[in-house]
Amino acid sequence: MDSRGILKDQHEEIRGLFKKIASDGKNGERRDTLLARLTARLQLHTRLEETYFYPALEGLDTKRAEETVLESYEEHAIVDSLLAQLPAIEHLTERFLARVRVLQSLVETHVEEEESTMFELAEKLGGARLDEIGERMAIYVQEVERVEQLIERATEAARSTERWAGRWVQRSLEVPRRAIGVLAPTRLLRLDERSQWLGALATRTPAWVLDGAFSAVAGLEALTGGNGQRRGTSKAEHASGRSAAA
Description:
The protein is an all-alpha fold. The chain has two domains: 3-125; 142-233, no CATH class. 81% of the residues lie in helices and 0% in strands. The chain is globular and about 65 Å long. The N and C termini lie far apart (50 Å).
């Protein structure tokens, strides 16, 4: 696929998220989720542009391309700064919506310039080169989605473990369940935090590490039975373990 097509599809998704945040009424939890998704999508989009698209345009070695790309880098920095401030603002206030509208205006201006000036400049790269960049972008997106799936599965497995451990402790030591929640591992896997890890993980984590992580999560799911019930180990499993060790 032409790299411009990938970027344009992401532009449409980002526009849609801005509209949903602005029209979400008084549902603070919903806004939290939408803001986390918007943050993840903007970070992914920025990473794709700065890693693949912009360097290709800089390779055209023209003054117009150089100036346009430099301006885009600066616009990314401003968007990142405003985006980082949003989680600290109460999401049900007018101040939050005002900040979102300012951010939306900046992103819209950036997108319009990109879809006109930058996409026009990209024509000089040729169809084959644009398709090559698009293929590399698509692989990157797949890796990010793979990490997202891994974290989702890890979150669910952790929740299952919490449920099993919570019942055991409550029955054995009569500890209130709310005390278990304070130490719950899924507190470290909230959507707003998780979204910020995806780009870095996808670019820095070798495939064999991700495969190992998937296996570990699958093992944890098997341990909990997928429903919070810890399963016992059968004689066959013990025997299999001894055979593997031998």
